[in-house]
């Protein structure tokens, strides 16, 4: 599949005929300044994240987090992983104040995803959306305790291939770009994060949360990534997040001709190159491996994964660990003000 359609209706038709990999919605679990991958133990972390997945999420996560979780906001009921991204904000060009841009509920393109609250769409692909190629490219599921990140807030030039933006017009996706769209998007801003597909087979993490992986993704959309190098020989599922941010609510507050881009990430980045995402594996037992071993499956759980109604998934919550006001209009984004806490105290349950 060389490209994704710019029309969600056509995407639905295409996905209905393909049969390789998993695709499912996850509602928002919580929105807090927590980051157990990049800043384990920090309470709060440096900037705000939107988090989905299992309820074992907290500031410090080690070992088999899936075994400790008791519920998940994801449709796949055996997926207690956590997925998180920096939160998007709108900066008012008139007075410089900030307010959160909310994620739109995942579109119910395929059966059973109706009712998601905010959140994101997750993909696990074996090869691409058309085929699995399991005989030539077997897939090894992640082990308990595994985590990784993609992208970095320090990037300022251009993000790695697979980290992208699209300007939604109604239900249609615009051209894929590497920065915030420069015009108003009536259907919201659509963001995509493709994770690296090659693992060293030894380390569950690395100091920068990326060098235990090797990113051979060299194109956009859902093409198969090139072969893994000898240093990182283990082919893992190609994990991808998709989110639609509801930017239309702010259309009357800015002028695209004179104000420039008013959207920023919660780490203070108005340059879209700094977009990044985090993943922490938490599938129960061997459920993900069974799915990745299943040929010609798509979305249905690959014949082995139990699904839950999103109304049930939406009941899953975690407590507010940070206890800070993140709603409404604010002079500074959380963690970005002059009086923000510089030294983070260790997390205690």
Automatic annotation (TrEMBL):
Signal peptide: 1-20
Pfam families, per database record: DUF1996
Organismal lineage: Eukaryota, Fungi, Dikarya, Ascomycota, Pezizomycotina
Domain DUF1996 stretches: 35-283
Organism: Rhypophila decipiens
Lineage: superkingdom: Eukaryota
Keywords: Signal
Keyword Signal attributed: yes
Record protein name field: DUF1996 domain-containing protein
């Amino acid at each position: 599949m060389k490209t994704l359609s710019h029309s969600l209706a056509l995407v639905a038709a295409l996905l209905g005929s393909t049969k390789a990999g998993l695709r499912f919605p996850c509602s928002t679990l919580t929105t807090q300044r927590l980051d157990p991958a990049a800043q384990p133990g920090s309470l709060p972390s440096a900037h705000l994240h939107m988090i989905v997945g299992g309820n074992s999420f907290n500031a410090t996560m080690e070992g088999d987090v899936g075994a400790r979780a008791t519920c998940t906001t994801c449709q796949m009921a055996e997926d207690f992983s956590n997925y998180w991204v920096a939160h998007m904000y709108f900066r008012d060009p008139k007075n410089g104040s900030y307010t959160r841009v909310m994620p739109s509920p995942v579109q119910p393109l395929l059966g059973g995803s109706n009712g998601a609250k905010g959140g994101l769409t997750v993909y696990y692909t074996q090869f691409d959306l058309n085929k699995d190629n399991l005989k030539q490219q077997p897939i090894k599921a992640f082990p308990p305790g595994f985590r990784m990140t993609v992208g970095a807030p320090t990037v300022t030039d251009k993000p790695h291939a697979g980290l992208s933006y699209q300007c939604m017009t109604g239900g249609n996706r615009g051209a894929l770009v590497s920065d915030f769209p420069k015009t108003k998007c009536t259907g919201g801003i659509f963001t995509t994060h493709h994770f690296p597909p090659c693992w060293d087979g030894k380390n569950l993490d690395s100091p920068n949360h990326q060098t235990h992986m090797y990113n051979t993704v060299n194109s956009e959309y859902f093409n198969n990534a090139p072969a893994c190098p000898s240093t990182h020989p283990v082919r893992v599922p190609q994990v991808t997040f998709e989110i639609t941010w509801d930017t239309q609510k702010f259309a009357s507050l800015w002028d695209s001709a004179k104000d420039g881009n008013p959207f920023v990430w919660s780490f203070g980045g108005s340059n879209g190159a700094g977009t990044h995402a985090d993943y922490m594996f938490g599938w129960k037992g061997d459920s993900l491996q069974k799915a990745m071993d299943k040929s010609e499956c798509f979305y249905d759980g690959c014949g082995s994964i139990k699904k839950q109604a999103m109304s049930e998934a939406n009941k899953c919550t975690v407590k507010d660990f940070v206890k800070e006001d993140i709603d409404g209009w604010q002079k500074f984004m959380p963690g970005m003000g002059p009086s923000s806490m510089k030294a983070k105290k260790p997390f205690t349950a």
